[in-house]
Design a protein that fits this description.
Layout lengths: L2 H6 L9 H21 L9 H12 L3 H6 L1 H24 L4 H17 L7 H18 L2 E2 L2 E2 L6 H17 L2 H31 L8 H18 L12
Helix pairs in contact: 2-7, 2-9, 5-7, 6-7, 6-10, 8-9
Length: about 240
């Protein structure tokens, strides 16, 4: 079976369902507020802001502070690389999909971070969350035949703007669907960040443990799909890969 045909037939895979992307976007909003508010003022979900902050520090001749941003940027790059290298080999083993393993890794990382003492260096949380966010970004790429991100909002603003213009110009239901998808992803990201801010102000680092609930739901659904429901579909490649 060609990769093109595999992708065409992959629309019903559990790992591509819209609810999964919505939940992951909610969790990512939580991560972003978590690291920025109580873990050193660093963004974990994407790296553009960190590049800007690094450039500002260099411009102000704050050399040590500028180099500090190399930590989250490098962690993000490493996560992208690992997820890209491991994706196809994991699928071909036909034991568990990489998506399932990744969610389990997130659960382990979140659990460890939740029980770190507040005196622990911020870099531990920054590296860990940048790492898992980058792998998540590179792994979950498309739902409902729409390219999306589960870790930041910029591409959703672009997609929503493009779809609004196309819908009012052509009136196609596909464009209306894309508007809804992009708007929903932005909304849940903001909600996740608000929840994170409120809980972090009250519980500090322990607040991140709340994300174990949505991550646990995703993991159990993925595990059931891999072991039972979609056991015969390992040859199908999720869209975007």
């Amino acid at each position: 079976m060609s990769k093109l045909n595999e992708r065409v037939k992959s629309e019903n895979l559990e790992v591509e369902k819209f609810w999964v992307y919505v939940v992951l976007m909610l969790v990512s909003g939580f991560y972003g507020a978590f690291t920025y508010t109580i873990r050193g003022g660093v963004f974990s979900n994407a790296q553009t802001a960190n590049f800007v902050l690094m450039a500002i520090a260099f411009g102000n001749k704050q050399w040590a502070h500028a180099l500090y941003f190399v930590i989250p940027i490098s962690a993000y790059l490493f996560g992208i690389t690992i997820s890209e290298v491991i994706y196809d080999p994991m699928r071909k083993l036909k034991i568990l999909r990489w998506e399932t393993v990744l969610i389990f890794i997130e659960i382990v990382v979140v659990t460890i971070l939740g029980f770190l003492p507040e005196s622990a260096p911020f870099q531990i949380s920054q590296i860990a969350i940048n790492f898992i966010c980058s792998m998540q970004f590179n792994t979950f790429r498309q739902t409902r035949e729409i390219s999306v991100s589960t870790t930041f909002c910029t591409n959703h603003l672009k997609g929503m703007g493009n779809s609004i213009v196309k819908f009012y110009r052509d009136g196609k239901s596909k464009d209306k669907k894309e508007i809804t998808v992009h708007f929903t992803m932005i909304l849940v990201f903001v909600i996740g960040a608000i929840i994170s801010t409120v809980l972090c102000n009250k519980y500090l680092g322990r607040a991140i443990l709340i994300t174990l609930i949505p991550l646990g739901v995703i993991f159990l659904k993925f595990l059931y799909a891999d072991l039972k429901k979609e056991r015969d579909k390992f040859d199908i490649v999720p869209r975007g890969h």
